Amino acid sequence: MFKYNEVHKGDEVSYIEALCDRVERSLDEGLLPVDVFSDEKVFRAEMERIFTRTWVFVAHDSEIPNSGDYVLRKIGLDQVIVTRDPKGGVNVLLNHCRHRGTEVCHQDRGNASHFKCPYHGWIYKNNGDFVGAPDMRQAYGGRLDAKEWGLLRAPKVDSIHGFIFACLDENAPSLRDYLGGAAWMLDCIFNLHPDGMEVLGPPERFIVRADWKSGAENFCGDAYHVGTAHYSATLSGLIPGDVRETGPNARGYKFDGGHSFIGHALHDWFGPPFAFWGYPPEVQEQFDLSRFDAQQIEMMKKVPPTIGTIFPNFSFLRFPQPARSGEFPMAFTNIRMWQPSAPGVMELWVWEFDWKCAPQRHKDDSYLAGQFGFGAGGIFEQDDTAVWEGIARAATSPWNRRLGTQLHYGQLRVEPDPDWKGPGEYYPSIYGEYCQEAFWRRWLDDMRKGGAGQ
Ligand code: FES
Ligand SMILES: [Fe+2]
Fold first, then answer.
1. Is the pLDDT of residue 254 over 70?
2. 3-class state of residue 287 by DSSP
3. Residue 324: pLDDT above 80?
4. Domain 181-449, what fold?
C-alpha cells in the first residue's frame, strides 16, 4: 500500500510523477487517491502545468461591449485585465507593471483608455502598449520601447458565441480544436439566437474551502448526488417535484479532452412543454434552428444538456426552476468558474445569463431562478459547497494520508448509445462515472505532459 511519507522524501517533480503513476493505476481500478485534493505540491503543479497552458474562460463580450471597457479576471493565480481596445479587439493583459511589478489596475470593472501605475506612474494603453512615464527625459533619455515595455499579453485570445477564453501557451491548439466535439454542444447552448446571450449582472464571487476540482468534476457528470445532497429542496417544498428523480432521468455526453455534459430527459420527465429546456413560447419562437443539424435539434427537444464542464474550470448550468414561490419552473442559464485560490480553497465566480432577445420579464425571472438555486445564497449551491469542503478536509486528514486512502470512482460500466449521430459519446444513463473518469484522465494527461501545448 502507498505510504504518503515515503513519497514526500523525494523532490517536488518526482513527487508529482509518482502521484501521476498512482492516479493512473487507481483510475484503472475505478479509484482515486484522496490526496489529489487540497495538496500544496499538487496545487503548484496544477498552476504551472494546467492553468498556464489550457484555454481558460475570462469574460463574456457583453461584459465589455464598448471601447475602453475592462474587467479584472483570473487565469489560475494570475490576475488579468480583459480590455476592449478602440479597434474592438479584446486584450488579456497581466495586471503587473513592467517597471517594478505592482498591479496597475485596482478596480473590478470600468472604462479607461489607459492604465496608470499607482507606484511611479508608468502609463499603458488599454491594449497593453507602454506609452510613457513621468520625467521621461531625465529618467530614460526620452525613450523606452513601447512594444518592449508593454504589459504582458496572453498570446492566444479567442471566443465562442461571445464567451472569451485566453491561453498563455502560444503553442496551444486553437480554441475550436481545444474544445473539439464540445464546441458542437456549446453551439446548441449559446447559439440559438443570432444576437446570442448577455450577462444579467456582474459575477458573484465567494470563497469556498474546497478544491476547484471538486466543483469541476461534479459538473462533468455527477447527477448521483442530487437525490441525497439536494433532497432538502424537496422536503422543504422549495421546488416542485422530487429531486430524487434527477439521477434516473440524467444522461451523459462525453467529448474528448475532459469536456463533459449531463443531459436530462426533460421532455419525458416533465411533459411536452419542456422541449428546449422549457423556454416559454415567446422565447422559443425566436430561436433560429436553421443553424443546427438533426441530432442537435432532437437533443435540444428531448434531452438537452443541463450541466457541464469545459476542462479545466468553466462550467455551465441550464435547468428549469421556479423564479418565485409557487410559479411554474422556467429555464435559467448559469455560468461558473471554479477559480483556484490555494490548496483546498477556491473562489467561486457565478454569472447569470439570458438571451438578448428575451423579454425583460423573462430576464428578470431568469436571474431570480438562477439565484434561487445557485449563487452565493442559492439553496443548491449551499448543499454542494458544504459537501465539497468535506472532501478537502478528507484530503488533509493525517489518517487518510498515512493509509493512502483511495476514493470510489467505480460504478458499474454503462455502454454508449451506438445510434448516437453527434460527436463524442452519448450515454443513456449517467451512472457509471465515465464523465468524471474522463475529467481525471485529462487532468492526469496535463499533469504528466505539462499541458495542452506540449
Ligand atoms: S511599479 Fe509601476 S511605475 Fe513603478
Ligand atoms: Fe449539486
1. yes
2. coil
3. no
4. Naphthalene 1,2-dioxygenase Alpha Subunit; Chain A, domain 1 (3.90.380)
Instruction: Give buried/exposed letters for 170-208 (b at 16+ CB in 10 A, else e).
Output: eebbebeebbebbbbbbbbbbbbbeebbbbbeebbeeeb
**Where are the domains positioned within the chain?**
56-167, 181-449
105 ligand 1 Cβ < 6 A: no
Question: Does the beta carbon of 109 sit less than 6 angstroms from any atom of ligand 1?
Answer: no
**Residues 40-54: tens digit of each pLDDT:** 999 999 999 999 999
Residue 413 CB less than 6 A away from ligand 1: no
Shortest-distance atom of ligand 1 to CA 101: 1
Which residue has cell 438562477? 370
- In the chain, pLDDT over 90 holds for what percent of residues? 84
Tell which phi-psi region holds residue 252, choosing left (phi > 0), alpha (psi between -120 and 50) or beta: beta
The pLDDT-based confidence of 12 (bands split at 50, 70, 90) is confident
What is the rounded (10 degree) CA torsion for 376, 347, 41, 153? 160
Q: Is the CB of 121 under 6 A from ligand 1?
A: yes
Whether the Cβ atoms of residue 190 and residue 160 lie closer than 8 Å to each other: yes
d(CA 351, CA 60): 10
What is the spatial distance between Cα 331 and Cα 277, in angstroms, rounded to a whole number?
6
Grid cell, residue 223, equals 447527477
Cβ of 328 below 6 Å from ligand 1 = no
User: Could you tell me the three cell numbers for 418?
Assistant: 451506438
Q: Per the structure block, which three cell numbers stand in for 298?
A: 432532437
Tell me the CATH number for domain 56-167. Answer: 2.102.10.10
User: By C-alpha distance, which of 217, 175, 167 is closest to 50?
Assistant: 167
* Atom number of ligand 1 nearest to Cα 102: 1
> Which residues are close to ligand 2, an ion, with C-beta < 5 A?
384
**CA distance to 57, 240, 293, 371, per residue, from 322 (Å):** 28, 8, 31, 11
Q: Could you please report the per-residue DSSP string of 95-134? A: SS-SSS---S---SEEE-SEEE-TTT--EEETTS-EEE-T
Q: Write out pLDDT tens, residues 105-154.
A: 999 999 999 999 999 999 999 999 999 999 999 999 988 988 899 999 99
